[in-house]
């Protein structure tokens, strides 16, 4: 809830992204020097545009013996295949002549099904489709085969008894590669996890370097009874190189780490052939996210891919962050700044538009395994995928994903604002189950200014995002037999409610649940996402916001609502103190932070006014009264609060109001919009900003003059309704359909 002057100040001071440095080939990326290294640009952001795309058919076979005899079938494909499958690329090296060395992984995902898959590195030349020229094909020119012909390994391999001792996907799971100044190749793999050192022709030069902090279940040196510390297929998916040092990154959390969002970055000295003992902690946006690739941009800086394991329209996180090992936050994690959200890349030339999901005016890389990132020049990223052949079908359901390479131009643009605040109500709850990171990410990609988490408390005092503390209608808790005895009846704000309540569950217990659509009859298109997503913590929502940018380049704001604060006070789970702590921990507890805390009650906002500098919003319904006033015997109602004197009182502790639509523009008896009430004018006179809730596209939520039919779930003219409210002087609004809300104010 910003005044227009404050908006201008906020835009000028908006945090910027790091501009990545120019790149060079060697074990290293670039060194700091004139014109290189990470830079901050106040009031600017990096805009990502698709510059070119090239693909290799998923069904392409390279020369060699048959492969995939034990691979799991998928998408109409069944092995064995008469040649070597190329299941996408997990790592790449730029040769700076238009060609790349592109390395697949172990083939089909496990030791047991990849014994006939040969470990290779392919020389490829993409024929970039730029929207103006180029075939869009990836040409495979040559390859090297990784081997142990010098008999370095001291454990059995598939081709043990052959002269060439070619390595297979049953021997190693290779995932990352860095080329040293002498042309040798350092490869990070996952079965150990090991660091492997090969000559330029692919011959293993020395024994694998073992990870100092644990082993995976597939490690050939695992002792009987020894507990693996590294998750299966969670080793060195990513590795960067800088100077003499390698920086392998553990893909997932270590088994004995009490923080499931922590990923460790290690330092390895290639001259000494040993780990240095240095390591850095990186925090993922959510527990299940993994690290897909790394690329050095400076002596202390690198790009990291952070991704989830979803694909297609289920995808939430496919991002490239830049980190600086010399900068850590107050919790000890390296600071990260968004470079590219691979689910939102502009495609003004329409490259391959219409050919599959994520190919349109906006380009997305919604593949499960987003595993390649590097700079090809100062302003251009290359991104690509491992297609997990034949199982992934992110683009076209039922058709295996092709191998993709895409060029992404990064240009600085000024941060801009249109003066209207669009709030993703519980995320983009018209398109994804509400209060999930998927809903919030969708809202961000649909260009909201703020995302709105309603906050309630768990039994152990952790704030989580749910519309209500009763979760029977928004999660699959009823399907968990072990929680059947938690079903109970409680009185919440004077109303008797039966169900399951967050305050009866620890966070760990809530993590076992999955979200579902609250209004399946109204939004059947959301039900395919049921059972996919966890309940996010407020901390995770704040992290997503602070690591994101709006379409205009400003920081994404957070608009938390404290739910039933009087009730939570009564059970010794006060919401205000942990809310302020989370805001402070995430750097949001300041007057100019993109945060507005809202509540239907009065007393907790008055308390918060003394506890934090962030802006506060008094929610107002078209009927009833704040429950804390009711509980105290105070006769004031919401109607009293929007009189001139009531608004002056609100202005003494809040910065704005969030009023139900009918408070601002009532409806006639026939359901059409009447003339605006004086509330917007009177609120502005006392310095309050005015937002309203909630715009939804379905007929039943629209005024009669904007409905398309008598079908309550039919889609009406939400854009038209919003525009009437904007003409009345509204400053912002909540919507379940952010794309339509943004269209209404564009």
Automatic annotation (TrEMBL):
<dbReference type="InterPro" id="IPR027372">
    <property type="entry name" value="Phytase-like_dom"/>
</dbReference>
<feature type="compositionally biased region" description="Low complexity">
    <location>
        <begin position="64"/>
        <end position="74"/>
    </location>
</feature>
<keyword id="KW-0732">Signal</keyword>
<dbReference type="Pfam" id="PF13449">
    <property type="entry name" value="Phytase-like"/>
</dbReference>
<feature type="region of interest" description="Disordered">
    <location>
        <begin position="59"/>
        <end position="86"/>
    </location>
</feature>
<comment type="similarity">
    <text>Belongs to the glycerophosphoryl diester phosphodiesterase family.</text>
</comment>
<dbReference type="InterPro" id="IPR017946">
    <property type="entry name" value="PLC-like_Pdiesterase_TIM-brl"/>
</dbReference>
<keyword id="KW-0319">Glycerol metabolism</keyword>
<feature type="signal peptide">
    <location>
        <begin position="1"/>
        <end position="26"/>
    </location>
</feature>
<keyword id="KW-0378">Hydrolase</keyword>
<dbReference type="Pfam" id="PF03009">
    <property type="entry name" value="GDPD"/>
</dbReference>
<dbReference type="InterPro" id="IPR030395">
    <property type="entry name" value="GP_PDE_dom"/>
</dbReference>
<protein>
    <recommendedName>
        <fullName>glycerophosphodiester phosphodiesterase</fullName>
        <ecNumber>3.1.4.46</ecNumber>
    </recommendedName>
</protein>
<feature type="domain" description="GP-PDE">
    <location>
        <begin position="420"/>
        <end position="745"/>
    </location>
</feature>
